[in-house]
Design brief:
With 320 residues, the protein is an alpha+beta fold. The protein has helices at 3-28, 31-35, 48-81, 99-126, 245-255, 264-270, 288-293; strands at residues 145-152, 155-160, 165-168, 171-174, 179-185, 190-193, 201-203, 209-213, 219-225, 237-243, 261-262, 279-281, 283-284. Strand 2 (155-160) and strand 3 form a beta hairpin.
Length: 320
Amino acid sequence: MGISERRCRRAARHGSAWSRSTLRWCAVAPLPLLLTACNWALLDPRGPVGQAERTILIDSLAIMLAIGVPTILATFAFAWWFRASNTRARYRPDWEFSGAVELVVWSIPCMVIILLGGVAWLSSYALDPAEPVEAHPSSSRQQPLEIQAVSLDWKWLFIYPQEGIASVNELVVPAGVPLHFALTSASVWNTFFVPQLGSMIYTMNGMRTQLYLRADEPGTFRGMSAHFSGDGFSDMHFPVRSVSLDEFTAWSKSIRGAGPTLDAAGYAALARQGTVPPSTYGAVTLGLFDQVVTQHIPPGPGPATDRGGAAEKSPESHPK
């Protein structure tokens, strides 16, 4: 076998190995995108609060890209200009200061910080969770719908005090009508979040927070808990069904008086740790939410310490 023939075979083997390696990389590279399980909910809002938050995200990204992209391009430009073969590039080993360079290096980041800080400052007032939201111009109802939300281990309870009904792990709202949430936790800290409507907010034991939202069109949106709270956290999500005002009125009438009553005994059974399917209550004891907030109804124990939770098992740690 001649030397040229051996070289050709060796090159063929290397080429085959290189092609196999390339194919493997092409097959593996897209996997992280498939494993992210991300969706575009934040960038596909269905309410005024979500739309404002999308604008803030896009504006902030544009401000950061305004300095990030030129910096990356300048890095490649400098590497290309000061390459070893470029005889026109000046080599100045004794250079140590330039007022013009210092001005650019410090002024641009300061401007970026000022712009980002201004966006955050203005939006923190414009998107205050306690700031009322107006009704959609096409809505015949202008007054907000009151909803009392309680995070339990590991489920969500929604009380409609104006209708005298309640639902578990399902939230039904009228499209175009302002929604006024009063939120608390019956156990450990949690977070109420409907990405397409906006404004993630904490629920805390012994405290009442409030939040205004609005769904501008009918549809089903994903609601979730965004704060780890124990073994059943992964199942602590709920559908948000936005329906017309007439459909919401018909739904509330069909629920009222047709199911069990959510009284102290029913609440105690519901508050036990565990997951449950969506369900409804045809009546609610007056003032039940206030009793949960003021801890006249004792809070749940929370996840046990031996399972990675923060709650103590001793009865002294649970306020009465």
